[in-house]
Design a protein that fits this description.
The protein is α/β, with parallel strands linked by helices. About 45% of the residues lie in helices and about 15% in strands.
Length: about 260
C-alpha cells in the first residue's frame, strides 16, 4: 500500500477499540458488526437471538451477549460486562429497533406504543448513559443511533405513528447528548436509513406491488442493502468523522430529496 493510500485509510481504522452493537443478530446490526471487526475493533454484539449471535461472534472474533433491551435491568448489565471482558467501550451502535403492531394512529394500542418507545428510544438513552463514564475516562467516544426516514417524513401506506415518533426522538436525543458531552470528545450522531432489503422488508421487495412502490419513490435505480448503510456508520464511528457530531445523516437513495 502506498504512503498516500495508507494515510487516506488510516482514519477509518479501529484497531484495539471496543465497540458495542445492539440488534447484532441480523440485518444492519450484523453488517455493521462485521465492518467494525474488519477494521480492527473488538465487537460485542447484543440481541435476543442467542444462536445467531454466537455464530456471528465466532465469525468476527467478538463477544455475544444475549438480552432483551426492553428490560432496564439487563441493559444495566451489558456495558460493565463488555468493559470487563473486552475493555472500555469507545463505540456504541444502537441498531436494535422494531415496530410493534400495524394499527393506524387513532387505534394504536398503548401497549404497542410503550414497547416501541422502550426499545427504540429509551434503550439507546440508557445504553448511552452506561457507556458515558468509560468514554469520558478514555477522552473520546462515538455513539451512532440508527434511526429511519420515518423520523423525518411520513411514509404513505405504512401506519407507524409510535415508530416514527421514536425515531424522530432519536434525532432530538442525538443533538442534546452531542452538545452535553462534546467537552469530553464524545460524539453522538444518527444515521437514518431509507428502505433497504432485510428480513423485515423482504416481502415488500418481493411483491410486484411493493417493488413498484419502491421504484416509484426511490430516485436511485439500485436496490438498497444493509451494506449501503454501513459506510455512513463506519465513517461516524472512528476518527474519520472526528469533527462530526449532533447530526442525522440520511441514507435513503434519494427518497427524502424528492
Amino acid at each position: 500500500m502506498s504512503d498516500t493510500r495508507a494515510a487516506a485509510v488510516r482514519p477509518f481504522e479501529l484497531d484495539g477499540r471496543v465497540a458495542i452493537v445492539t440488534g447484532g443478530s441480523s440485518g444492519l446490526g450484523a453488517a455493521v458488526s462485521r465492518a467494525l471487526a474488519g477494521l480492527g475493533a473488538r465487537v460485542a454484539v447484543v440481541a435476543r437471538r442467542r444462536d445467531r449471535l454466537e455464530s456471528l461472534a465466532g465469525e468476527i472474533g467478538g463477544l455475544a451477549l444475549g438480552g432483551d433491551l426492553a428490560e432496564p435491568d439487563r441493559i444495566a448489565e451489558i456495558v460493565p460486562e463488555v468493559a470487563d471482558r473486552l475493555g472500555p467501550p469507545e463505540i456504541l451502535i444502537n441498531a436494535a429497533g422494531n415496530r410493534f403492531g400495524t394499527e393506524r394512529a387513532e387505534s394504536e394500542p398503548l401497549e404497542d406504543i410503550r414497547r416501541t418507545m422502550d426499545l427504540n428510544l429509551v434503550a439507546p438513552l440508557l445504553l448511552a448513559q452506561q457507556v458515558f463514564p468509560y468514554m469520558r475516562d478514555r477522552g473520546r467516544g462515538s455513539i451512532v443511533n440508527i434511526s429511519s426516514i420515518s423520523g423525518r417524513v411520513g411514509v404513505p401506506g405504512i401506519p407507524q405513528a409510535s415508530y416514527a415518533a421514536s425515531k424522530a426522538g432519536l434525532s432530538g436525543l442525538t443533538s442534546e447528548l452531542a452538545v452535553q458531552w462534546a467537552r469530553h470528545s464524545i460524539r453522538v450522531n444518527t444515521v437514518a436509513p431509507g428502505f433497504f432489503r432485510s428480513e423485515i422488508t423482504d416481502s415488500l421487495y418481493d411483491s410486484e406491488r411493493g417493488a413498484e412502490y419502491l421504484k416509484r419513490n426511490i430516485p436511485l435505480p439500485t436496490e438498497g442493502t444493509a451494506e449501503d448503510i454501513v459506510g455512513a456508520v463506519v465513517w461516524l464511528a472512528g476518527d474519520s468523522g472526528r469533527y462530526v457530531t449532533g447530526q442525522t445523516i440520511v441514507v435513503d437513495g434519494g427518497w427524502t430529496a424528492r
